[in-house]
Design goal:
The chain is mostly helical and about 130 residues long. The protein is built from 8 helices and no strands.
Amino acid sequence: MSPKTHLIERLRDLCAQHGVGTVADATASSEENLKQILAGTKLPSGAPRGVGPTLQRRLDAAYPGWSALTSDPPLTTALPTVTRAIASLSRLQWEMIRTALDRLPGNAGVADEVAAMLLPILAAENTKQIRQAA
């Protein structure tokens, strides 16, 4: 991860924690500018907007240590544990998940219903390690 990407990710974490408007107010910055940075809006040069030196100073003053905040671990870090947890599902739990997933293709309107079906399955005792890994 490049230093510029790192700062954008830390800004994303900070805004997720406090809200974009609150961060904008605390740093005397434009909420729109912060949203553009987070969205990767391009400058006229074609480069994506980033956290420049002025914004860095303002963020340092308002949120000391903000650039050291950590994001959730990437999926690839948790993937082996998630894979083991899925492998430990009972046959019945796996069939319940497959039934729920089979309802998704071509019918986005049932996503909430599918999520509601999956939550109790994944909350089973032998899959708690999925949440611990993330």
